[in-house]
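Tokens for chain A. Residues wanted.
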């Protein structure tokens, strides 16, 4: 039986000068993991991802299947993204990367 998820959250955790990990993305990743588990959101999976070329505005977080890219995400933004977007269906406008869009 496959596990079926409603949302997948990708957090860029690439290390190196100017990369997302040096801007705190490992803490963002862990916060997403902790919050999703604490809220028992079993239909949401959080995974690490490599560089997406957007570290100038990192940490970068991508939400699928919405094709939505967030920029400059901090651990304090995580609860808002979860509550407003992943649960409530309304993306957090102030964090959206306007340079990156995926349209199905
Ligand atoms: S290191 Fe995160 S987008 Fe490049």
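Reply:
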């Amino acid at each position: 039986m496959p596990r079926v998820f409603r949302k997948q959250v990708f957090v860029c955790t690439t290390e190196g000068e100017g990369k997302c990990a040096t801007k705190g993305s490992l803490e963002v990743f862990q916060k997403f993991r902790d919050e999703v588990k604490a809220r028992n959101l079993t239909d949401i999976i959080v995974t690490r991802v490599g560089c997406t070329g957007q570290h100038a505005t990192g940490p970068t977080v991508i939400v699928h299947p919405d094709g939505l890219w967030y920029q400059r995400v901090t651990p304090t933004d995580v609860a808002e993204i979860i509550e407003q977007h992943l649960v409530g269906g309304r993306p957090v406008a102030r964090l959206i990367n306007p340079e990156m869009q995926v349209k199905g």
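The chain has a mean pLDDT of 96. The longest strand covers residues 7-12.
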